[in-house]
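User: I'm preparing a small set of examples for a lab meeting where we compare how different chains pack in three dimensions. I only have the primary sequence for this one, and I'd like the structure in token form so I can line it up with the others. Please keep the answer compact; I'll paste it straight into my notes.
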Amino acid sequence: MQDVVKYLWCENTERGARIIGCDEEFEGAMEIPSALHGVPVVEIGKEAFLGLHSLKSVAIPDSVEVVGERAFKDCDGLNELRLGRGIKKIEKEAFRWCKSLTSVAIPDSVKFVGYGAFAECYRLNELRLGRGIKKIEAKAFDSCSSLKSVVIPGSGTPSKDATNSKNFSWERGLKRSKKTLSSIVLLFTGSSFPGPLKGSRSISSVFAPSGGWSSSTRGPKTALSGEAIRSSPTRVPRRLTTRRNI
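Assistant: Understood. Below is the structure token output for the 246-residue chain.
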């Protein structure tokens, strides 16, 4: 692995080091160090890697708490992303136009995903959300035209804010991406969760944990046994409710 430290520019804050830029001569895989010159790296700053087309993969350490606005925007060669388990906020347009990304796993530590954070990641086909999400802003995954599946772990008893449609903005967050979805996987979500399915007419299956969900589409409610709720492309479940917490 090449020595990445010599390519990175940083500044110190009260909380730790913030990466503010990267030499455009860098090419290939970037494993961001957890500390620079003995100072823990806590933030990827605004536009730090903006338009770095030669960046192929990036691993963000667990020490980082914030990925700033447009931090990796237009890194169109970025095909692999590993987000650290300490990240709390992914700011506005942080990964917009990362056109080579095919999958994103957002860790449980993340509470906030900003406006257009992963918008126009045209090859993104799989998205896994963490348990800690409180707010996803509008157009967070806008125009992810290859997106096929979304995994929503949730928790046994998610907070009211986490499932409030004003905060957990699926209708706007997946704008222009929903037509391609073929499945949404819901795991351990303990309250009603209508938002993800609204308007997603191409969804053919929704997976739920054994005994954890019932369907309130046409017909009587049915307890599930780890099976999918099947629907035609023009009929998707409008609402899911729990029979019991998991």
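A couple of notes for your slides: The two ends are 44 Å apart (CA to CA). The longest strand covers residues 17-22.

User: Perfect, thanks.
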